[in-house]
Design brief:
alpha+beta; Immunoglobulin-like; six-stranded mixed sheet; four-stranded antiparallel sheet; 10 strands
Length: 154
C-alpha cells in the first residue's frame, strides 16, 4: 500500500511540473470564414534572442516542408488578417509571405491586414506566411501558416 502511495505521489508531481510550463503566445490568421490559431514554433521566454541553430532554423525548415502548420484558404482581393497577443506586439513583429517582408519595420500593433490582388502568384501548394517577433536584429518568436488558393477559385 505504501509503495502504491509513493507511485501515486510521484506521478502527481510529474503532472504538476508539466502543468507549470508556460504556453507560448498565440497568433490567429484569418481570411473570409477561415481561421487558424497557433502557438509559437519557437519563443524566447528568457528575453534573449533565439539561437537559429538551436530552434528556429530546424523548426522553420520542418514547418515549411509541411509539418502541420495552420492553413488559410484565400481568394483574390480578400483581406487576410493577423491578430497577435499583446506580448508579441510589445516585442515588435513582421509578417513575411514567401520571402517578401510585408512591412519595412516591425509593427507593435496587435492587428495587421493585407490582401493578395492576384492568386496566380500563389502556387497550388500555397505560400508560407511567417510571423517573426523581434526588432530585426533580434528574433524572439516564430509562427508559420500556409496561404493556399481556395478550392474552386481560378
Amino acid at each position: 500500500m505504501r509503495r502504491l502511495a509513493l507511485l501515486a505521489a510521484a506521478g502527481a508531481s510529474v503532472f504538476a511540473l508539466a502543468a507549470c510550463e508556460k504556453p507560448s503566445p498565440g497568433i490567429t490568421v484569418f481570411s473570409g470564414q477561415s481561421s487558424a490559431h497557433s502557438g509559437a514554433l519557437c519563443w524566447s521566454f528568457s528575453g534573449e534572442t533565439l539561437d537559429s541553430t538551436a530552434c528556429a532554423q530546424d523548426v522553420v525548415e520542418n514547418a515549411l516542408r509541411g509539418g502541420g502548420v495552420g492553413t488559410i484558404p484565400i481568394v483574390p482581393g480578400e483581406t487576410i488578417g493577423i491578430s497577435v497577443e499583446p506580448s508579441v506586439a510589445r516585442e515588435g513583429w513582421t509578417p513575411v509571405v514567401g520571402s517578401q517582408r510585408l512591412l519595412q519595420t516591425p509593427t507593435t500593433s496587435t492587428y495587421y491586414r493585407f490582401s493578395f490582388p492576384d492568386l496566380q502568384e500563389v502556387p497550388v501548394d500555397g505560400l508560407p506566411l511567417q510571423i517573426v517577433a523581434g526588432t530585426g536584429e533580434t528574433t524572439k518568436g516564430i509562427w508559420i501558416f500556409r496561404l493556399v488558393p481556395r478550392p474552386g477559385i481560378e
